[in-house]
Write a structure and sequence with these properties.
- By secondary structure, the chain is α+β, with helices and mostly antiparallel strands.
- The protein is 35% helix and 21% strand.
- The protein contains 14 helices and 16 strands.
- Strands 7, 8, 9, 10, 11, 12, 13, 14, 15 and 16 form a ten-stranded mixed β-sheet that branches. Strands 1, 2, 3, 4, 5 and 6 form a six-stranded mixed β-sheet that branches.
- A hairpin with a 5-residue loop joins strand 1 (18-26) and strand 2 (32-38).
- The longest helix has 21 residues, at 203-223.
- 45% of the residues are buried.
């Protein structure tokens, strides 16, 4: 494969008759932002000369230090696969840089790169594969999203009960047009709930892919008059949407899975066990990043296959970490708590940081819990030393505040801005009078 260069990007843009290029980046919450430029400005962008006002972006900088530069990653150039009346549009994903040419510490993509570099210094590269679930809902007469769906399908159902089948095909086609290797798509447990799985990749590529995936899914849904939501728990009493994240370490520069040991216990290497130990040890600390919303903790309750308990297993899906049966190159750990509302750059950064800390400190994950934890009594869970994830966002923020390892992964800039915004978010929720309270108490008291 020939190396991608600025010249090849300029030539490709000309061949594809590109008229505009979207320079994409994310804020600290993982919301995609973009600066659109005419294709005539592409060479300037590739020379890292495009500036934007960082003071307008949540969690970036103060107004007196607002000028920021966008540095495109030329490996992310791709055509956006839907037509515009003004001509073809391409995109580039960018890192954010300070005016002095240094990486901006508030850029989530730079944050992930920093932890990836730490792994490389230890001799590892991380591969990750997400399973991002979402709901498709109808829009009302004013084109606003509702929580209603005519879709009455269930897990792996076929048409006609799976009303989203055609929409998923359109999404898969669009994603493949942007270079994704789609492995499967199917109806999920909830009515109107869906999942599209794409091939694992190195951590940075996976984070880019998640951002692109969410962008494409919402756009295609809109074209069908629907609203796609990655909200973790949009419906009471129905399955929540998770983003189970499969992860493994490979030895740097080699196609050798560092998690596999043919002669090891469970055919897992010490590296794998220590990595799992790190995921478990820091689970309460990184929950505020992997599960970032007030609503996230409505999903993390017993039942609905939600991973509440901090344990690992080979056999069942009730613990936080599951080890799928495949061994060899496919040996991996599946972390089941993340939800698709998270910032994928920060989420992968804290997961990797937790695992690396487990390796450095040789954290023993204990024995696997190969029973359904939901059926255990409180005493049994206590005897097995099985703790739970935080029960709400405020508790999760307290745990993040106390976890120096996870804080160091984020860096002080992102940590301070993230904490400030999330404390405000939780307090807004806390002081609201909710419909449940009115229905429960108004007529009685």
């Amino acid at each position: 494969m020939s190396k991608v260069t600025k010249d090849t990007i300029l030539k490709k843009a000309e061949e594809l008759k590109v008229k505009f290029v979207k320079l994409q980046f994310t804020d600290v919450f993982g919301i995609t932002k973009n600066v659109a430029i005419p294709v005539k400005q592409l060479e300037k962008a590739l020379n890292n000369e495009i500036m934007f006002d960082g003071s307008s972006i949540e969690g970036f900088v103060r107004i007196e230090e607002s000028d920021m530069y966008l540095k495109p990653d030329i490996n992310t150039f791709t055509l956006i696969p839907w037509q515009s009346e003004y001509g073809n549009v391409a995109r580039l994903i960018c890192d954010v840089y300070n005016p002095d040419g240094t990486p901006f510490e508030g850029c989530p993509r730079n944050t992930l790169k920093k932890v990836i570099k730490e792994a490389e210094n230890m001799g590892f590269t991380m591969n990750a594969g997400p399973e991002a679930e979402f709901y498709l809902f109808e829009r009302d007469e004013e084109d606003l999203p509702t929580t209603h769906s005519k879709d009455h399908g269930g897990y792996f159902d076929l048409s006609p009960v799976d009303m989203g089948d055609e929409v998923r095909r359109a999404m898969v086609t669009a994603l493949e047009g942007m270079g994704f290797e789609i492995e499967a798509s199917h109806h999920e447990v909830g009515e109107g709930q869906h999942e599209i799985d794409f091939k694992y990749a190195p951590a940075l590529t996976t984070a880019d892919n998640i951002v692109t995936f969410k962008f494409v899914v919402r756009k295609i849904a809109m074209q069908y008059g629907l609203h796609a939501t990655f909200m973790p728990k949009p419906l009471f009493g129905k399955a929540g949407s998770g983003m189970h994240t499969h992860q493994s370490l490979f030895f740097k520069g080699k196609n050798v899975n560092a998690f596999y040991d043919e002669n090891g216990k469970y055919q897992l290497s010490k590296t794998a066990l220590y990595y799992i130990g790190g995921l478990l040890a820091h689970a309460r600390g990184y929950a505020a990043i992997t599960n970032p919303l007030v609503n996230s903790y409505k999903r993390l309750v017993s039942g609905y296959e939600a991973p509440v308990y901090i344990a690992w297993s080979e056999k069942n899906r009730s613990p936080l970490v599951r080890i799928p049966a495949r061994r060899g190159l496919g040996t991996r750990a599946e972390l089941r708590c993340p939800d698709p509302a998270c910032n994928p750059y920060l989420a992968l950064a804290v997961m990797l940081k937790a695992g690396l800390d487990g390796i450095k400190k040789k954290i023993d994950p204990g024995e696997p819990v190969n029973m359904n934890i939901y059926h255990l009594t409180e005493k049994q869970k206590k005897d097995l030393n099985i703790k739970s994830l935080p029960s709400n966002l405020n508790e999760a923020l307290d745990e993040l505040e106390a976890d120096e390892v996870i804080r160091s992964a984020l860096g002080e800039h992102i940590y301070e801005n993230y904490m400030k915004a999330k404390r405000i978010e939780y307090n807004e929720y806390r002081v609201q009078v909710h419909r449940w309270e009115i229905e429960k108490y108004l007529s009685i008291y």
